[in-house]
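call fold(seq) -> tokens
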Amino acid sequence: MTLQFSKRVLQEQPLFELSGELSTARLVEEIQEVQSVTVATVHGAVEWTGKVAALTGTAHADAVCTCCRCLQSFPQRLEAAFDEEYSWSKDSLDDPDVVFVHQDVVVIDNVVEESLFLSVPPFPVCREDCKGLCAVCGANLNDAECGCDRTVVDPRFEALKDLLSKADSE
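ret:
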């Protein structure tokens, strides 16, 4: 389904509400951590101010993501707010906050889709206290401790460690 509004309708009805569903297939294609996502539910309104058409709204979808720490799948609610201003007047060409429109009909699918992309966390985690995977054996540390020695020693300090052990033995 395409979400759109037109200048002609706004001139007759200065406040136009829109709602519908939008495909989110590109989220799965382009964001590695997103395994699947439902169709987005979109609600919004366009208000004609006489100079610009001000669009505001929200989009919601449910995704299944991969945790960047433990690599387990988990559900993630995506919620995105969007707002944009459109104008059919060439006077708005100098305003970077207003989108100049050439046609009567404005399709807002890209604005909604971009907002949904931005709502996906850059590093999704299944929970804030996720312990991740053991760097030695790869076990999921959320399930149980594996017993591996995961202490990391900076190789630049190895010589100092040797000096300390020699001093202790004397």
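The mean pLDDT is 90.
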